[in-house]
Amino acid sequence: MKKILLPFLSCIAILGSTYAQDRYIDEVFPDVSVETDINYGMNFSVIAASAGVPYVPTGSDLDGDGVADIPALNFDLFQPVGDTETERPLVIVLHTGTFAPIIYNGNPTGMRQDPATTMICQSYARRGYVVANLEYRLGWNPGAETPAERGASLMKAVYRAIQDTKGAVRFFKKDVAENGNTWGIDTSRIILSGQGSGGWVALGYASVDKYAEITLPKFLAVDEITGETTALIDTSEIGDWDGYGGAFNNVNHPGYSNEVHMVCSMGGGIGDLSWLEAGEIPMCAVHCPTDPVAIYTTGDVAVAGAGLITTEISGSYDVMAKANMLGNNDVLASVNAGSDVYTLGAQAANAAAQGMSDFGGTTVGAPVDNVFPYVTGNPFEASPWDLWDETFVENVALSLGFEAGYGTAISQNALGQNPDMSVEKSMAYVDTTLGYFCRRIVRATNLDGLSGIEEIETANALEVYPNPATSVLIFRAKEGNINSIAIHSALGELVQSETNLSSNIVSYNDLNLKSGVYFCTVEIDGQTFNQKVIVR
Length: 536
What we know:
By secondary structure, the protein is α+β, with helices and mostly antiparallel strands. It has 2 domains: 7-371 and 381-387 and 422-444, no CATH class; 462-535, Sandwich (Immunoglobulin-like), CATH 2.60.40.1220. 27% of the residues lie in helices and 23% in strands. It contains 12 helices and 22 strands. Strands 1-4-6-5-7-10-12-15 form an 8-stranded mixed β-sheet, with helices on both faces. Strands 19-18-21-22 form a 4-stranded antiparallel β-sheet. β16 (462-465) and β17 form a beta hairpin. The radius of gyration is 23 Å and the shape is globular.
């Protein structure tokens, strides 16, 4: 299945269909196996807060009927059948849904079992990846009184989902370290692939890493009398961006690294463009300029029935432009200079999108690498890859106690954004999306072997996190003990050193280093490994 979506590229698609099949880029495995409902943690959900029951543990059965009313933190695991590799990259897929359950969110989608999400997972697995289709916490308050409160409520939903995803990353790293690597995963190559609101989670995971970023003016409450401001995202209540601390937060799998290595977003955005900083991981995206919620450039978020939610969110065009400018996507330069049909398709689509207005009225500028704009001709198209079954949606609505016809009405209303929805259309967009993403995943994670054996050996032997770092830096040998550590500045000055060590983990809790790039030389059982670290 090699379908390019832009008609004027059909000749290129035909020519491109004869090339050899490459693992991690093409679908080389015909069959996929699935394990369902694997639990990776527990946390406290606000999904029932509107009913007066805040902070309920995930997986809870509130009415005692034996069925969980609050979704558990589970994932479904997809693998290629017949694969002989024992260390495969892991793709964590994050589903769509506007951070509310299906039907309640006014949409015919919103579950990890959505048909398009399942199709995405299967397609990644047929390319040779291990795929975790992740459940994350839902729940926010679009009916809050002020835009600041609505924006903070949405941000907290993204924030909780980021915490859950980080707990899942730690779950897999713990499994490799303590349980013998149950699913044959290479934890030095972990990719987040987010769809819709899952794209927001993936991009936020890669960019939210300090308190100042969640206390921007748009996330503050202002007392009308005193003028004093209060942070609407209270870390003492819900914990920090890594999922640590907080009175109503459970820390899942502490002590393991949260590090991931690539982010792919399908129609996602970030709460503020200032979150992006130099040294963050590579990212790429597909996005419809006509998306009415996740604005393609930068603008406001509004939801039907709730009005303005928050201001100045940034979508894929502006996010990728800044990530490229910061040098975070430099590793993808060779792919963007290539001639594969998906890269050529993205370049043509960028040229076609230039000068059009996105949903917020901003004129789309010059072409940008690492984003594929889907210009479909439908005026409100947001997720052309989406797929649903009207009868299934109606039955879900009935099971939730809604009156007959309610689910059908939701399905019909969703056709306003996806009027030509079909299995064939969904399959074509999924194929094009993964054709575009996977070439960049391969380059960003060095699956093509172009970055030198030394980097691969270091990744397999040593974890250094967080990176970028501030005051804390942790070194962990994956096997054996660390003997010594030397940290040099970019000018070659020795700024920190330790010798006569004999531990698999060494932690610096007060680095006290100036912002900049540092080079770490770590000896593990007599072998030397090098790692670049950015300090902010």
